[in-house]
Structure formats: C-alpha cells, structure tokens
Amino acid sequence: MSESIALKTIMPFPDPRNKLKYSDTEDEVPLMDHDDWVEETSSTARRRRPLANSKPSNSSRNISNNQLHKSRIIPFHASNKIKDKYPPNVVRNQKYNVFTFFPLVLYQQFHIFINLYFLLVALSQFIPPLKIGYIVTYFGPLCFVIAVTISKEAYDDWKRYKRDKENNSQKYQILTKNGIELVPSSRIRVGDMVIIHKDQRIPADLVLLRTTEASGACFIRTDQLDGETDWKMRLAVPYCQKLASDERLAQIDADIYADSPQKDIHNFIGNFSNHPIESITPVVEALNVENTLWMNTVLASGTAIGFVIYTGQDTRAVMNTSHPETKIGLLDHEINRLSKNSIIDPVCCYIIAFPYLDRFEWFPRPMVYLPISISDSLFIDYPNWVASLSNKYVKLFSLRVNLDMGKTVCGYQIMNDKEIPNTIVRTSTIPEELGRVEYLLSDKTGTLTKNDMELKKLHMGTMSYGVDTMDEISSHLDMAFAPRQEHTHTRNSSRNAISVTAANWGGKGRRDITSRIRDIVLALALCHNVTPVKEDGQVTYQASSPDEVAIVRWTERVGLTLVFRDVNAIHLRTSHGEILEFSILQIFPFTSETKRMGIVVREKSTGEIMFYEKGADVVMTKIVQYNDWLDEECGNMAREGLRTLVVARKRLSEEVYHDFEQRYHEAKTSMNDRKAQEHSVVSSILERDLELLGVTGVEDKLQDGVKTTLEFLKNAGLKIWMLTGDKIETATCIAISSKLVDKNQFIHTISKVSSIDLAMDEIDALHSKPDCSLVIDGESLQVYLDHYRHEFIDLAVRLPVVVACRCTPTQKAEITRLIKNFTKKRVCCIGDGGNDVSMIQAADVVWHGRNSYKRSAKLAQFVIHRGLIISVIQAGWLIVGYSTIYTMAPVFSLVLDQDVNHRIAMEFPELYKELTKGRSLSYRTFFQWVMISVYQGGAIMIMSIVLFEDQFVHIVSISFTSLIINELLMVALEINTWHPYMIISEILTLAIYCVSMIFLPTYFDLSFILTPTFIWKVAVITAISSMPLYLVKCIKRRYAPPIYTKLK
C-alpha cells in the first residue's frame, strides 16, 4: 500500500476539462471564466485543448458581484487579474466609517423614546409660547448625554480600528517563484502560498499543502473559531507533501477547486489537480475539511505552507461573525412604557389648550412659584403652566443617568463577588434580567457534567469489569503480551486463529478470557483519533473528543500505551516494552450522522488487515453479529449514567480489502451523491457481520455543586430544560443523579415518534400528567416542531422539567426561540460551548439578579417620584440642583440596599418567584408613586401658601428646604438595610444644601433662615408631607407584611 493511501482525502473532483460546473449545487459556477483559464495556462494549452471547444455560459464569462460567493477553480501562480476578482483580505470589525458615524450614532440615540423626547422638548423652547426658563437648561443635559455617547462609541470604534489595523498589518511570508516575500495580512490574496509558523494566526482560509512533519500532519487550535480547546489534526495534500522541497511548490502546474464560501466550518468540498507534462490526464486528489486551515485558528505545531482559497468576507470566520445587537432589558421596556404614559398628560393638555389660548383670561390661574421679584406677578397664564410640565425633561434625564449608573454598580458587584471569582460581565445594560429568568436551558456535557471522562466499566457478554476489577485486565494483558519465545509463538498462532474464526464468533466456539481481553483492549488502543504530543518533557493526548482520550488513558493504565501516531502509522507499547506497529490504511471519522468511527489497519509483523469500529449502540446493533446481551447491558450502563460505546472488528483478506479500496475510490471520485455512495461501499463490505468485542462505559463526572444548584433553582421557581445530544438512557440518568428530576417524579418518555397520529396521541397522554418530567428524543421533537409546534410548546412550558435528547444544535436554537416567542418570558441558556468551562454557579448569580432587579426598580420609581414632586414648583436653576447635588447621592445609594441578606436568599430560594411576576415595577406601583408625589407636592405647596409671609424669597426658602428634607426622609423610609455609604450620602447632602444657601442669595435670605420661624415652618410642612406615609407604611408592615420580612 502506498503512502498516498494513508494520506487520504475524500471526494476528489474529476478533470476540470470535462465540465464548467464543479458542484452538486446547480447554481454554482467557477469564478474563473474561459478566457482567464486559457490565459493562465497558455504554457499547457496543448494538453488542455478540449477547453477551446467548450462554450461557457454568459454567467461564467461575465463575473458579477453575486458570483463572488460561488465555487471557484484557483490555479497555482494565478495572475493579478484572477486574484483581483476576490474580496481583499482586510479584517474590519468597525461599526462605522467617516460618513456613517454621526448619522448612525444619532439615529441609535434618538431611536430611544426618552432621547427623542429630550430633543423635542429642547426644540420646543424656540417657540415663544412654550418657552420656560433658559434654553441652555434643556440643551445642556441633552448635549451632554449625546456627547458622552458619541465619545464612547467613537472610543470603542477606535479600539476596533486599532485591533483591525494590528491584524491587517501583521506580516506573513509568501512563497513565490522569486523566493519568499514578506507582506502584511491585508495584502494576502487568493492563490498565494502562505508560510505559517508555530503559534501564528492563520490569516485567511487555506488549503494545507506541506508541513515540516514527514507525515504531512499538523495541529491547530480552533478555540477562537468554534470555542473548542482541543487541538485538531490537519493533513497536507499528499502530492505536495511528497515534493522534494518547498520551492518545488512554485514550479508545479496545478490548481485547486473549492466549493462556494459558506458558514459551515466542519465541511469543505474541493480537489487538488496536478497537470504533469507527460500526461494529458491530471492527477486528482480529493480535499475535505481535514486539509484546511480556517482563518483565526492558530498553528500549534511545526511550520506549514497553505494555499489561499478564501479571503476577507468569504472566510468562514467572517461569515460566522455578526455585530452584536444592543441588548435592552425587560425593565428598560417597562420604564419606557411608563415614561410614555407620563408624557401623555402634558401632550394632551398642549393639544387641548392650544386652540383656546385667547379664551383663558377668565380661567382661575394656579399659583406657581418662579424666581421673580415681588413686584412681578406671581401668576402665569394657563398655557404657560401647562407648558411648565416640560420639566419632565429633567425627570427623564435624571432617570436615565441614574439607571445607567446603577446598572454599572450592579455589574461591578457581580465581578467582584468572591463567591463567583473570575466572573466577567460582558454587558452592563441588563444585570437586572438575572432576576427575571423563568426558563433555564442547559447543556449536559461540560455544563452539568465536567467533560472529564473516565472509563468505569468494560463488558464483554459473559464477563464484566468495573473500577475494582481493572487489575485483572492488566494481569491478562501482561500474560497475553509476555515476551517468552514459546508464548510469542502461541500468541501469534492464537492471533491467526482468532482472525480466522472472527466471522464465526457468536457460534459454538469460545475463546479464552486472555485472548478476548487482548482483542478488545487492542481495538480500543487502535480505533481512535488520538495523537500523543510531547511538550516540555510531558506527553499529553490530543483529540477532538474527550471520551476518546479517556479510553486511551485507560489502555495505558492497563498496559497498552499509545507512543506514536501520525496519518500513516500507530505504535503501541506493551507493559514489557515491546513495540507493536500498525499501518493506517483508512480512517472513517466520527460524525453526528454516522454516530460511529472506524479504522482499517495492517499489523506490520503479520501483514493482517483488520477493520475496527466503535459507536453508539443504536447504530452498532444493526452492524454486529446477533447477540442476546448488547441492548440490555447498554441500557444498564446508561441508567448508571455512563456513556456507552460498542466495539467490534472484522478481519479483511487482501482480496477483500483490494476490492473495497477500488470501489471506495470510485465512490469518492463520483460526481453524484458522493457521501451516499461512500457509505454504501463501507456498509456493504466492511460493516457486515462484525465480531462484537464488548461495550465500554465512560463516566462524565458531574460538576461540583451541580445538585444543590439545580435544586435551588427549581425551588426558586425556574423551569429547567436539559438539551443534549446524548441518548435517552444516559440523559435520564444524569437528570436523576443531578437532581434535575426527583427520584419519585414520574418520567414520561417520548421516543421514536415518526407519525403525526402517534405524536398527537403522546400529547393527549401527557395532558393527564401535568407534574411529570418529559424526556423526548430528537427524532420525535422534530415531528412536533414540524407539525404540532404550538400544541407541543403550550404543553411543554407548563411541565417542571423537560429533557431533550439526541438534539442537534439547530434544534436547540429552535427550542430557545420557540420558548421566548411563545411565553414572552426571560430565557437563560447555559452551555460550555465546547470549552469544558465549569458549571456556572447560577445560584449566586440569581442572588445578584434579585438585587439588581429590586434596586433598579426602586431607583427608577424614586427618580420618577423626585421628578413628579418637583413638577409642582418651578424654581429656575434650583430644579437642576434638586435633581443633582441635592438628592442624587441619597437616591443613588439605593443601589446598595437589599431587602434580604445573602444567607436568607440562598436558604429560601422561593423568594425568587416574586421577582418573575414583575411586581416591583408595574403600572400599579407607578401610580402609587404618582399619588405619593401628588400628595407630597400638594402638601408642600399648599402649606407654603398658608404660611406665606410678605417676602417671596421666604416662601421659596421654606418650600424648597421642606422639599429637600422630605426627599431625604423618603429615602430613609425606603431603605431596608443601611449601608455606611447611605448614611454618609444623607448627611453630606444635607450639609451641601445648607452651605449652598450662603452662595444663593437670590433664593435664600440668610437673615430669615437663621430665625426660629423658618425652622418651625419647615418642620411643620415636612411633617405633614411625610408623616402620613410613614404611618401607612407601619400599618402595612403590621397587617400585610412582605414575605421577606417574615424571614428576618
């Protein structure tokens, strides 16, 4: 067998001379038109003469912009004319450019209702009948907010520009006919040959041509692309890897076909075609994803040379990147609605009053205090009084500033919580959403479990080994691989005998225990994609699947160690130091569709060819020879929470393998249904009557504290769904062991539902079990999503627990959207993204969600109250002072308040249920605060009139001082748990107000303020405005206390 077999690739493409279309998709056409092809290959026109007779369509002759996303044929040493047809390799993550910055930023700001209201009110001040106060008091705050926002957006986009510039200017070596050139990443074009060194970022989508490893393999890190930290092995194009030197790449006459750019990072269809001078027929080698290096991955080993096939916007990384949308929380939507309602009244008044402005001479004019001299009229016209309600501008502005600052504080508290170290808050706009979650959707592997695998059980029909009996396996292997000459002879004879009788296994003959153990351990040590990597003197195993690593580690512990692996060979070392060498002939990687992986190897010492395969029991049951124990044992292991893999083998003669190789090559080079034809060949020759060797049970350990966390969340009223790709038995066991499902809770299972009638019957049966947990497989789930979407989700969202098994990523996303759209509730999704991240300690995060929501709601209502109460009084610049330095610190200190402490919140998670109802901020509470504001504002105004003396400045001093003290008292009354900063803010604010009186003689007469008259009048007004509310609160706490007060 030649080396090219081991360095195999799949799906080669036929001679490009035969067709102009090179894809199973009908609308895909090559980007290279006929003229370019002839121009680029003039030196080989004689060998490609058949092209002259071809008549390309207009679509292939005229390349338009929409064809930039079609399949392409890229010749080596392509001309600039061809390279210029493809997008430039420029990384651009900026949201704006010079022309779009201001229009987009302003649109985003005034798209928000409050900001638009700010603008309209400010513009209204240019209309004389509506003008109140100084224009600067309206445009000043608005311009400040917009300036801050523009500055922030500009700074963030400037940082993106700096990062883009750094990426685009990174230097790379390009291999050309004239040698090696150093060019920035932005100047790399399709058709270039890029030299990549270890730990260097891949600048574009490449086909791997050569590596410094003789086998043609290299490893890449893909965590920045798919979130997976495991290294991935990539294979060089066999023809290129066999060249004598790198420089030969610049001399060969070849081209690469690549299918159309797409988002899918796990699939690629292409082919490499070499056109030797001595032959008319090109040498074609198929390419797949194993031959690619996607942009933004990192080369983890050696040095590689790649051929650029996609650049810029055509790369997988860019196509999978989307600009994040601005997240707006439910609380913000609620406040936005309340803000609109608070503006309806003055707008209606404007509309009603405007036609009758001249008819209000007789209307009783309400008194409104203004900073005017006593000689001026103390009354204003009714239209102006209506327009004075525009001070809601100040209220809403203050509301937005306070909320934004409060959310920032909440985010800071989350990141600095010692109970959840290293937590990163990536958006500070929605921390309160954690207090409104009703549905929690969690992955299983790596989220509820650690993704730390360990082989716990091995079953071989009549024998079963667990953790306590693994030493027996080591003893049998030690005997099987003993170096004694006579035993070696026996072992070889036994091996041949085993091979001969492999096809008849399951019949009358029974092999001894030692040979059976040897066979299954050898199968486990060979059938995988694990590669040993040595770094800093330590050997680690790299693979895309952690359960494969767990199995290889187990074979090492029992006495069969993987010491070498490349694309051509596997070397194993026995416990006695003997090296067993195997050549790799074919590999069939594991996919979600096949649910199995296989390998064909040849033992070098005997020349025997063996096909090993392992996979899920649902597919392996149909492949292995008949047995009466497989289904039962797989079910038993799954109920123990173990991931099962069925292991089997088949001996292949030279004739059988040669026939398979020939037919498989024909299938790979087929233009129609290549995958189906490949599968047909494998299943008809290899996957028939496999000898069943045994079943492994691998444990995926639960995350620390996951049981108590899930129990807490369930008690808090959250409905938890587990979405996993595992089988029903394993997922059910994990759901029970993690206490997601109570042990005594009935579990209703829906599986293998393929008809709509049966699907409806299951829904009818489930209606009678409202308190049960639902376990459903992906096949059945798809039937409901296709035919009974509404009926299914209407029933499922009412169940306490739903476990969806065998789910595809698409199904997981669809379920999430379905719950959000149907329930209109907050959904939290937790997953590891393949990174093996520890379980999010959701219980402590919920504690922060409670605080964030309660604090934000209270802060919003207090700011609204502060704005409404000041609506009664028009005091010029004092309004600005009231909303800022005089009350801002005490009101803002409410973000430090907590109704219950951490211990009580964690001990009684039922308190969380109250938050999901949204009662902390609603129309009811809003109107309660409106009534409080009207009463207090009216009390202060009326009492100030009653106690009015001969000086207008005195009434301003009395009323405004009463207003400040009233607000400080209201803050104190609303505090549940005092924080030192709260006390400081109250005292400091009062001191600042007293000192400011000295510097505001227009509003405050010091000679009057220092008299007893001023003091007793302020005391009386303050008592009348605040004491009744204090009494109401005491009565309410006495006869209808909140739930949390009963727990203190």
> Roughly what is the average pLDDT, rounded to an integer?
77
Going by helix content, strand content and strand pairing, the class is: alpha+beta
The tally of beta strands, per DSSP, is: 30
| Shape type | elongated
Strand order of the largest sheet: 16-15-25-24-23-22-21-20-19
Share of residues in helices: 40-55%
Describe the structure.
It is found in: Endosome membrane; Membrane. Residues 33-64 are annotated as: Disordered. The protein has 1048 residues and is an alpha+beta fold. Helices cover 43% and strands 17% of the residues. It has 37 helices and 30 strands. The strands form 6 sheets. The protein has a 9-stranded antiparallel sheet with strand order 16-15-25-24-23-22-21-20-19. The chain has a 6-stranded antiparallel sheet with strand order 3-2-4-13-5-11. Strands 27-28-29-26-14-30 form a 6-stranded parallel sheet, sandwiched between helices. It is elongated. The relative contact order is 0.08. The model is unreliable at 1-68, 359-390, 486-510 and 833-845 (pLDDT under 50).
